[in-house]
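Quick question: who can interpret this fold?

. . .
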Amino acid sequence: MTRKAFNPDRDVAEWNGPKVPYDLLKEFAIAMVVVTLVVVGLAVVFSSPDDPAVTLQSWAQNSPVDFAQTALSELDGSSGTAQYGPPYNAGGAPQSVAGISPERWVGVHIPVNTAQDFVFGPLATLAGAPGVHRAVAIYQAASDSQKAAWATAYGNALASARTVDGHVVVARGHFGPVALMIQSLTAMAERGGLSGPLPASSQFSSVDQTKPLLFLSDGSYFAGLGSARNLTGDQWGMMNETGNYPGQAWLWLYTMWYQVPPIKSSSSADLLVWMIMIALTAVLALVPFIPGLRSIPRWTRVYRLIWRNHYRQAT
């Protein structure tokens, strides 16, 4: 039988030197104990740097004007969520790179109607508020041009609104039913009344917070908190922690691409970064099968540095 020719890029020469026993399970057990003690010890000493969760109630209490402005944008369809597109609605332009658009392929599978889900739905749960229900009915029966006129007038008034005793105060104007609807929704949020109706789900027990998070993200209050704590995308926020604590440092490779032009200014940045990371992950997974690349450790002889004690004894 003819022997296959030795290929230095693919084959490994048989080891003929000395051999010593090695207890891998013992080393693993020791490493687990040491790491566990270190992690628990650091957690006890430094505690947790996390801030309390931001809720719709805390938002409405701390920045009622911003809440009202955001609620108005959800009502008239001008918010980021209303114009986002798939998977929430048919608006906006899905991210696409060279004709590749997973958003378009999947389509709308988490339907969100901002006016219904964030305004009409919660207001419908108000008991003993016939004036509010009548205002909703008047608004829904009005023409699109009339709705736009009311929303524009109230939006202009909110631009110079004041907060008095936790209530939004605006100048007089022709706002139709919009003012009562937005003021009632803001007061409802301040009392914590949106914690139930907003995350409505068909499941018996749901922890799905998609809708509250979308509502929060449309306002400037939540973004302002993140910016103040260096947690936004252009501040490498995905790998930061609140305060002066390191966060998920292993995410540096993912977040780095968002800082690189032209990805930094692209409307399809998320898709571009996703495609880059998929490609890099594929290369990493296929290292043992890529000629030349798989032999770098052997050519650089880095293994002799890792196993230096063994080679020192062997020579």
Summary: The two ends are 35 Å apart (CA to CA). DSSP finds 15 helices and two strands in the chain. The chain has a mean pLDDT of 88. Residues 61-195 form one domain.
